[in-house]
Amino acid sequence: MAEPLFSVRGLKVALPDMTRKPLVGRAPLVEILKGLDFDLPKGSVTGIVGESGSGKSTLGRALVRLLEPSAGTVTFDGRDITHLTEAGLRPLRRNLQMIFQDPMSSLNPRHTIFHIIAAPLKQNGLGDNLRDRVAEALDRVGLPQGFASRYRHELSGGQRQRVGIARALALSPQFVLADEIVSGLDVSTQAQILTLLEKLAEEMGLTVAFISHDLSVIRRLCRQVIVMRQGAIVEASATEALFDNPRDAYTRDLLAAIPLPEIDPGWLDTPSAPRAPA
Amino acid sequence: MSAPNCLDIDKLSAVLPNGQRVLRSVSLSVQPGEVRALVGESGAGKTMIGKAVLGVLPSSVRVVEGDIVLEGQDLGRLEPKARRTLVGARTALIPQDPLTALNPSRRIGPQMTDRLVRILGWSGQRADQRTRQLLDEVQIRDPDRVLKSYPHELSGGMRQRVLIAAAFAAEPRLIVADEPTTALDVTVQKQILRLIAQLQREHGTAILFVTHDLGVVAKISQKVSVLYAGKVVEEAETETLFAAPQHPYTRALMAATPRYTDPFASLKPVDDTVLAGLKQEIATADQAWRRPHG
């Protein structure tokens, strides 16, 4: 396996549980991630899969340090970034990019696409040749140059997601966090976005953490997979090994619950295995 | 034919204020006790058809042609009040998002019984009994707690169970299920699909099942209509559709649908020539339709 870009040991994240916050005073903390150990190898796409509440998005946010871990260490490219301050993180930000699920809410409605893609370039001292750089970023994701002057509402869902990818990749980052980036899209668009990300990750040698609830998409795109449940890793292995021979019962459950687009009269007769209470 | 179909939709067309057609001469029928899937991507008009049947189209959408016949009664010929009474008694909806379908500030119990009491004129006691019976059928084991809960106190899967129970409570002949499992995790989705299928069989209810997921279509339906831009591009028995899809768009949709068992043969982008062909097909249909309609 390649040298890891991320090395994570004993990662815990605790967040305030607002449903139990007293009227006066602090909300009690609830542990979302319960001590995770894993590596993300350089230059490959790792899938992180789990159902809602499994902690997969929290894990992503801890990797790019939108959240500060409460215990453990996160090492990025040989450097401990677990408790870096915002100022300490700033020089690393260009290498820690993200693409979100809903580009409608992650793209500023009052800025043109040019402005949206140019902003991170300017912030990272790449303000020269902005026009060329933005043109290159649009070209990379297959959008016509004319889109630079448009606003997000003038774009379709798939086009918006292309802008999200263009913005994240404009800085040629080492790492990209992609959090459910195709879940809101129609299947035909979904396939286009995945093909695009697959191609760019390969060409640019990106390290990607691809968070998704969809194991089909994960199998297509990822070289290794981490299966999460209730804040813990239940299984982590190379993609083919995981699909050919899932070791954990929960992974097998997840696979069996996916309705494949083929006739299978017995499918509805087999129950999902009952899950242990949280 | 002996018994009338549960639902017949004949050449239904609807337009926006700017004259653009959103439903394009849609025809389909649902036999008693049958599940018909309406499948398509966003903008295909699948939800719109369900809303037209239930009589809850947005005010900007106007039906300009076609008939909706529910159990032999042509809804277009009924007075609005008679239509509402008939539709209210014979149909029900399972919506996509139970949180928006439920009133957040009322307990589950009265929300479930109100419809039975107010619309169907049942006694409170009968409505309560029936509600508890249905909660039992959707495998809710602690009905007292659930009936006293507010919607936010239940999980997504539990809320969807409550709405399924509510939909079946009045023994409708037809249920419109509008993406009822789209917001759920896969394991919960499977439980909910199993429940819907089981109740549907036991009660002999027909379902118009709106979904974007060909996987769900394959598992739940006996018949299927594939829609694009408000037009039925193909309809078939579900088994036939999967064995031998006829329309290029249906084939493209199948090739785009993810299959974890075969990741590289699935998730194929829809070919531009297929989309161009579809647009041409729709333009031709619109032209032919507009001629007599001036």
Write a structural description:
- The complex is a heterodimer of chains A (278) and B (294).
- The model of chain A has no long low-confidence stretch (mean pLDDT 92).
- Chain A is an alpha/beta fold.
- Chain A has helices at residues 56-63, 86-93, 103-106, 113-123, 130-140, 157-169, 187-204, 215-221, 239-244, 249-257, and strands at 4-16, 29-41, 45-49, 71-76, 79-80, 96-99, 175-179, 207-212, 224-229, 232-238.
- The longest helix of chain A is centred in the last third of the chain and has 18 residues, at 187-204.
- Chain A is globular.
- Chain A is built from 10 helices and 10 strands.
- Chain B is of the alpha/beta class and 294 residues long.
- Chain B has one domain (7-293): P-loop containing nucleotide triphosphate hydrolases (Rossmann fold), CATH 3.40.50.300.
- Chain B is 45% helix and 21% strand.
- Chain B is built from 12 helices and 10 strands.
- A 6-stranded mixed beta sheet of chain B has the order 6-7-8-3-9-10, with helices on both faces. Chain B has a 4-stranded antiparallel beta sheet with strand order 2-1-4-5, covered by helices on one side.
- The two termini of chain B are 36 Å apart.
- Classes of the chains: A alpha/beta (278), B alpha/beta (294).
- Chain A binds chain B through residues 51-52, 157, 186-188, 190-192, 194-195, 213-220, 243, 253-255, 257-264, 267-268, 271-272, 275, and chain B through 41-42, 156, 185-191, 193-194, 197, 212-220, 238-239, 242-243, 252-254, 256-261, 263-264, 266-270.
